[in-house]
Here is the input.
Amino acid sequence: MPSMGKEIHLRLDVLDVGQILDGIRCRQQAWTDTAIYLRDGYFHDDAFVCEECSDFTKAQNIADFYQRIIANIERQVDEQGGF
Here is the structure.
């Protein structure tokens, strides 16, 4: 999913940024797990809950989108001296 082009600049407490990253990482992992399930037909964890998607490529694209957001936030945090 490409960027929409408009940037938003936020000022957040470092703990808030950590919580945001934790939440986005959970979403990224859920979509990665869904893509694996859709590709392989099974998942190794009995507690796994598939996201609402029936196409491996779409699920992987969503996981990649979340990963791009994570990388972008982490890069900006690093540029500002890290956590």
In short: The chain is about 60% helix and 0% strand.
